[in-house]
Design goal:
The chain is an alpha/beta fold and about 220 residues long. It contains 6 helices and 9 strands. Strand 8 and strand 9 form a beta hairpin. Bound molecules: S-adenosyl-L-homocysteine. The site of S-adenosyl-L-homocysteine (SAH) has 24 residues, from strand 2, helix 4 and strand 4.
Amino acid sequence: MSRTPRDQQDDDRMEFLLTLRRRGIADKAVLRAMDEVPRERFVEPGFAGSAYADQALPIACGQTISQPYVVAYMTEQLGVQPHHRVLEVGTGSGYQAAVLSRLAREVVSIERYRTLAEQARERLKSLGYDNVDVVVGDGFAGVPGRAPYDRIILTAAAERLPQTLLDQLAVGGVMILPLGSHDGSQHIIKLTKSETGTRRENLIPVRFVPMLPGQAQEL
Ligand code: SAH
């Protein structure tokens, strides 16, 4: 029998999960979420054939959908529990939000481009991920009306720690972000907030699109 594009995609998905495990992703719930969310629905139609390759891909508005390994890694480090409310800054395609929605009670995701936010909202709705709220606005301001958050994740690189977002994190909460210069070196940083202060851990080197101030004036 001849192989169909669907067979190819099944193979790609199997390889995708193996790659994540081989690179050290061990959390069962995270692997299950990565397995469940159809990444091909979040990439541009022209890139559907590469949806399960371990690479970042272009999306509208000059942005990117992150590399699957980095999505899985940040999600694992975030330590999301089923009762958590999570804030994501940088909705983009909605892929990271979809993965989080499989693990958390509620996800609030903010995006500065209206076009991306609207597309992501539609996509998430059509996939039945109805515990995600996509908001258009400036992620530097967070979404104070829904704070505090048990977990906060930034998917665009900040040049310094955004204090306003840290203020919206619950005590006991964890925030993960790519930190570093927009054209130089960036690392994933994990912040854990306690009664007495905030503990900082520097994790892996990464390359993210910049976090930019204000809602985008272009669509
Ligand atoms: N999490 C996304 C990755 C998108 S790339 C996904 O899974 O597809 C990062 C996104 O952050 C871009 O869409 C960019 O427009 C957005 N962004 C950058 N600065 C922002 C800000 N200040 N507020 C909200 N979104 C921002």
